[in-house]
Amino acid sequence: MKFYPLSEGSFTIDKTKQFVPFDPLRDVLQDRPTGSLLVEIQPFLVQTDRDLLLLDTGLGFSVDGELQLHQSIRAAGFEPMQVTKVLLTHLHKDHAGGIAVGAGAVRTLSFPQATYYISKAELQFAFEKGAPSYETEELKCLIDHPQVRLMGEQEVIAGYIHAERSGGHCPFHQVFRIEADNQVLFFGGDEAPQLQQMKHRFVAKYDHDGKRAQQLRQQWWELGERDGWSFLFYHDIQHPAWQFSQPGY
């Protein structure tokens, strides 16, 4: 297995839920509104012997008329048409912004050869909750789409991708454990977003159930250390990944 971070850049976010670009060479975090968080937006490609997986889809920004995510995939040496599965931890706008392109009734999925794996309960919740966390107009194209697979609490995809509802960051958040080529990749979305949160006990006020998210991080980290997992971090500005040594080495 090989993985490729697809960074869309660094941003600050505050209680308005707006993502404002941040240049560490020019900008000062203290100049942003009180309580602003500094985060990376970083989907991942994972190449296995049978799939090209995309883990979450970024903000959905365009550069020169083309989806930034598509440009990042090409920069990694692939074509968007090669993506076979899109795995979504949840549908907040910074994770689901790149699911589709276009506007209104002509909005189409960004990866026409891929199956999208989404929690059924999360899709329903997104339309109940709405803005500012969910952009429901952009999510309508997922409803009853033949490429969308709506998932339950716990499933195994294609025999090697383990999906499990975790429910810490938002009620129906899910995480993915990918097991192939004697490796394990773990992608925890917003419940395992940064290396520092894995190494230190941290309860986030922005989580639906911060205590549960903290407990899950501790469990995953202990399992990863025991079994030699690699962790992929969606919001870490310095560490896109962390790999434990394989057991027995």
Structural notes for this entry:
The chain has 249 residues and is α+β, with helices and mostly antiparallel strands. The protein has one domain (2-243): Metallo-beta-lactamase, Chain A (4-Layer Sandwich). Helices cover 20% and strands 28% of the residues. The protein has helices at residues 68-75, 93-96, 120-129, 136-139, 195-199, 210-227, and strands spanning 2-5, 10-13, 19-21, 37-40, 44-47, 52-55, 62-63, 66-67, 85-87, 100-101, 108-109, 115-119, 148-151, 154-157, 161-165, 174-180, 183-187, 230-232, 241-243. Strands 1-5-6-9-12-13 form a six-stranded mixed beta sheet. A six-stranded mixed beta sheet has the order 14-15-16-17-18-19, with no helix packed on it. β14 and β15 form a beta hairpin. The longest helix is centred in the last third of the chain and has 18 residues, at 210-227. It is globular, with a radius of gyration of 17 Å.
Topology:
Blueprint: E1 2-5, E2 10-13, E3 19-21, E4 37-40, E5 44-47, E6 52-55, E7 62-63, E8 66-67, H1 68-75, E9 85-87, H2 93-96, E10 100-101, E11 108-109, E12 115-119, H3 120-129, H4 136-139, E13 148-151, E14 154-157, E15 161-165, E16 174-180, E17 183-187, H5 195-199, H6 210-227, E18 230-232, E19 241-243
Parallel strand pairs: 6-9, 9-12, 12-13, 17-18
Antiparallel strand pairs: 1-5, 2-3, 2-4, 5-6, 7-8, 10-11, 14-15, 15-16, 16-17, 18-19
Properties at a glance:
single chain; 249 residues; alpha+beta; Metallo-beta-lactamase, Chain A; 6-stranded mixed β-sheet; 6 helices; 19 strands; 20% helix; globular
